[in-house]
Specification:
By secondary structure, the protein is of the alpha/beta class. It is built from 13 helices and 12 strands. An 8-stranded parallel barrel has the order 1-4-5-8-9-10-11-12, surrounded by 9 helices. A hairpin with a 7-residue loop joins strand 2 and strand 3. Helix 6 crosses helix 7. The structure holds ligand PBG. The site of ligand PBG has 12 residues, from helix 8.
Length: about 325
Amino acid sequence: MQKIELKREMLGRPRRLRVGESVRRLVRETELSLDHLIYPLFVRYGRGIREPILSMPGQFRLSLDELPRELEEVAELEIPAVLLFGLPEHKDELGHGAYDDHGIVQEAVRTAKRNVPELVVITDVCLCAYTSHGHCGLMRDGYVQNDETLELLAQTAVSQATAGADIVAPSAMMDGQVRAIREALDEAGFTERAIMSYSAKYASAFYGPFREAAGSVPQFGDRSGYQMDPANVTEALCEVELDISEGADIVMVKPALAYLDVIRAVRERVDLPLAAYNVSGEYSMIKAAAQNGWLDEKRVVLEILTAIKRAGADCILTYFAKDAARWLDS
Ligand code: PBG
């Protein structure tokens, strides 16, 4: 009797499978692959411009003529997709630059498709970088008008698809935006273009550096009237289900790092591809610590990206995509 009990105790030795890298590889549960990385990029007007984004070391605002070189590098690293954000020349109340057929993003898409056609081009569908007030929709009486904004978002998506965008990614958090965009795309003949919806997008302070990068800081108030309350997770499931019923092809949770539980919860409910956005603040925190020598950047980045995958994400949008591609390759 005694002997058997002793033997049982000896069974519990997980360290047997940690003795060397080969064994660890054999039983590793999560595999991070560059096949699932999406690299976000900022484009602007001008010529010969590669303007560093101070709050995001290593990231730049590129003029259109600088874009092909960057995209070729991304393609050479075998990163399959980019996400484009634009900084317009002028902003106005209605965010015209977002749905201008020859707006900055539309021209960036054309440049991308002309130069590196194999790269998947995803476009952010939102008004905040194009409106003078910096909110994501049409503003009246101090309130972002939901239903009137839908028309503008649909127009934005169609103009981006016309320029050649493969996937449009609505991020304005207006109710019904996926349906409005799906219907408009179909009507315009773009039945094969996909929608990656920022379904569970939280009103997060982690977007701080991005807003500096894209010049999209709200001039008054904040986005909690349309983006989600960071305290909620059940509501994320509701947002995701609505988006799927409206025609989303890929759903997204954003940010990623402080929301791994949300990624997991969505993963358990949903069979569609799930994306997670490793946002600007998550990038800048690591960059700042690494620049001070406080963190091993490579190890921390790979650990975080693996954690996002482990939580259940299929695709990861990350400013670390190029670094990760190099590290994964070496
Ligand atoms: C546009 C948009 C934002 C981000 C992606 N699309 C900013 C926001 O909602 O304020 C944030 C991305 C990041 O922080 O990296 N609405």
